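Problem statement: downstream parser choked on a complex file, so we are re-checking the raw output for the iron/sulfur cluster run. The parser issue turned out to be on our end (a line-ending mismatch), but while we're here, posting the original submission so the record is complete.
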Amino acid sequence: MKVAPIAVVGASLAGLTAVQALTESPAVTAVTVFGDEPHPPYDRPPLSKEVLRGVWDVGRCALKPVEDPRVTWRTGVTVTGLDQDGPRLRLAGGTAESFPGGVLIATGATPRTIAGADLDGVHVLRSLDDALGLNADLDRLPGRVVVAGGGFIGAEVAAACVERGLNVTVLEAQDAPFERVLGAEVGEAVMAEHRARGVQIRTAAAVAALHGPGRVESVELADGSHLPADVVVLGLGVTPCVEWLTGSGLTIDNGVVCDASLAAAPRIVAAGDVARWPNHRFGEFRRVEHWDNAIRQGRHAALRLLAEHGYAEKQDFTTVPWVWSDQYANKLQVVGSTVDFAEVVVAHGTTAEQRFVALYRRGEHLVAAVGFNNARLVTRYRRLLARPVRWNDALAYAASGAGPASTRPGDH
Amino acid sequence: MKIDVDWDLCDGNGVCAIEAPGVFEMDDDDELHVLKEDIEEEERPQVDAAIRVCPKRALSLHP
Ligand SMILES: Cc1cc2nc3c(=O)[nH]c(=O)nc-3n(C[C@H](O)[C@H](O)[C@H](O)COP(=O)(O)OP(=O)(O)OC[C@H]3O[C@@H](n4cnc5c(N)ncnc54)[C@H](O)[C@@H]3O)c2cc1C
Ligand code: SF4
């Protein structure tokens, strides 16, 4: 018995990786991939880095296609609904198609916006078309660029603007940049070069609305004050693309709710930015919006679907999340989960020398390591974090000379 | 099979060294070192995983 036709919804990183994994199985007969963007799959991280800095043409973002006669790419097609019975997909235009082999949901996430976001000169940065639009606007050498939201994307956009010689202000709602995810000390260290290069960073400055007659002219803050702006880039985070699943009977709650194996319902699995699942390694039930997670989940969800047909083993998906961000020549990496951390210790190097590793405690355990210009130690901590690590062991490990050795605490 | 690193693309983030520690290693200057170029059959799953997760798509295998 071969596997009946399968559909993948979302033709981006998680979807493409899923297709790759599916085509590795000779039992798979047909895979149809739906993507609402007109483009074949491309990589998003360079959009806020190489592309915005002007060192890459957008063409270089293209992801390596899967060339397999069993795969049909239907780009430019929006899926508008899912019936679990079938399972069936409803498509824009009113047609419906059944995929008895199952459906893999990989519709990702979309940027949050605010009132006035439709004005000219206001940009989000998620898609290739967004990047082209922003590039074109920055090429006009606007006098004042305002980045709303001091997260990874906001910081990368600010860095690219500085390298283009533009005047940039970053508005951050918290009291310190990256305060909630990295803690104030590490957050400040990450923004130090931005400050040194003239980026204005305004903290406790939540953005309320954008104003202008047609083109944006000012940003209104929550305290009622206004800030002039010629270009505004919104880096306010993303929300999962789940509207199309309304009425599907799937549990939708800040993402497609999955079990630990990434299954949402019989023959329906989810992967990437859209998927919320219990990660048993960290005792968390959330979505992870990172490149590495989309790659790993895309593959895992594909195998999970094949497991229902007896062609793979059903396994739980556990991961040590990993994300990187490049700003100027600085490389930031976060491994593990800093969510609700209770304590931060800079365990290697110093924030002043701009090369360090900070460790994060939650309860009695090490839950994350953040490296700034220190990839070697980050790889060691990522390996270490594959299993629970007690905080005291982690500190002892860090103190034991040249950083953690390749052995684990407790191994001897 | 031989592993090939495109050094113009590699940015030394070390993800491959986590997937295949017997093949890739990071040095103190955050430079990637390839410990062995010839990949044995037993190492293929690890090396394939490293190729998949390299964010810069800098790795490839050649006969
Ligand atoms: C500018 C930028 C920079 C980034 N930099 C980094 C970084 O440095 N490091 C890092 O770890 N991560 C980074 N990320 C995050 C990373 O790119 C995402 O985690 C990853 O793209 C998630 O992949 P995905 O396939 O789950 O979702 P997405 O890439 O969002 O893809 C989902 C696709 O589904 C399509 N879709 C949605 N709804 C429908 C529908 N109803 N019908 C058909 N198609 C639909 C969407 O249009 C989209 O093409 C960055 C993201 C952006 C935008
Ligand atoms: S994963 Fe890729 S980019 Fe990172 S160090 Fe290895 S080869 Fe270089």
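For whoever reads this later: Confidence is low (pLDDT under 50) at residues 404-412 of chain A.
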